[in-house]
Specification:
This protein is α/β, with parallel strands linked by helices. Helices cover about 45% and strands about 15% of the residues. The strands form 2 sheets. The chain has a 6-stranded mixed beta sheet, sandwiched between helices. Strands 5-7-8 form a 3-stranded mixed beta sheet.
């Protein structure tokens, strides 16, 4: 299988790219492992000052690939009994890998075009700044059935009112709206996004690394002192529970008969995600 992440060093910038464009860069089990190894490499390279994380093709990431992760999610059709601690270990491992972006002492700019959904938002929100194209959409569709955000960063990034608005409904957030409510730092026409991110990243790279590290630590610890670690523990446990409610188990049986059928049953009342036109083909969680 091809490596799902590509690394390039361009001067003082580290460019990290999710490279599974055919399935909208859906997260495979090995994606986060490879990404974490690249982050370790970046951390140890004193020449690198800024990280840019992006997705190849027309989307950042459509979230977890349900087929690829089915065994680790402990789907009840595949195991006789749910082990909550085994489930927690697997998902807590993912949270630790997502948070590798958060813990990196170098600023991480996340470049988003197209879709950033489910587990893709867990990844993006662990970065420091999000720059998006005007056609980008963010969302957490498994909030409707079968999941909770394990990194628990929505309320920290959005505040209580907006976090409730979009996590209770699971509705997608268009880029303009995401900018208005503070989810993203900047939005640009798609044709100008790459140049805008590159220009800002190069400008940021002129700041001493130690200065940026001190400010990132200061800002991150403000959130951590507001109980981020505890909320991630709860979010990860609740994610496992959410996949084993009576409604979730019924939905899972539909899922095993066909991903499209299951996603349609989830999205039909809202008319979004899988119910949209063919441009959304490949959406996951």
């Amino acid at each position: 299988m091809a490596v799902p992440v590509r690394y390039q060093k361009v001067g003082r910038l580290a460019i990290v790219t999710l490279v599974s464009p055919k399935d909208l860069n859906a997260l495979q089990p090995e994606t986060l492992e490879v990404l974490s190894r690249y982050m370790n490499r970046i951390e140890a390279d004193d020449e690198v000052r800024v990280v840019v994380l992006q997705g190849a093709g027309r989307s950042f990431s459509a979230g977890y690939s349900l087929r690829a992760w089915s065994d680790r999610f402990e789907m009840t059709t595949k195991v006789a009994r749910w082990d909550p601690i085994k489930d927690y270990r697997a998902m807590a491992r993912n949270v630790s890998l997502f948070m590798r972006l958060w813990r990196c002492l170098k600023p991480v700019i996340v470049k988003v075009r197209g879709w950033c959904l489910g587990g893709g938002t867990d990844l993006a929100l662990c970065g420091d700044l999000i720059f998006a194209s005007e056609d980008a959409h963010f969302g957490y569709p498994p909030a409707r059935i079968w999941g909770t955000p394990t990194t628990a960063l929505w309320v920290y990034r959005l505040g209580l009112e907006h976090a409730k608005r979009y996590l209770l409904s699971g509705e997608p957030i268009p880029a303009r709206r995401a900018y208005e409510i503070g989810l993203v730092a900047e939005i640009y026409p798609d044709a100008k996004l790459d140049a805008a991110v590159d220009q800002f990243a190069r400008k940021l790279a002129t700041v001493p690394s130690n200065q940026m590290a001190l400010n990132k630590l200061l800002l991150n610890h403000a959130f951590e002192n507001m109980g981020l670690a505890t909320n991630q523990l709860v979010g990860t446990i609740f994610d496992g529970i959410a996949r084993h409610t009576p409604e979730a188990l019924k939905w899972e049986r539909t899922l095993m008969r066909g991903v499209r059928r299951a996603l349609a049953s989830r999205d039909r009342p809202f008319g979004d995600y899988s119910m949209r036109k063919a441009s959304t083909k490949g959406l996951r969680n």
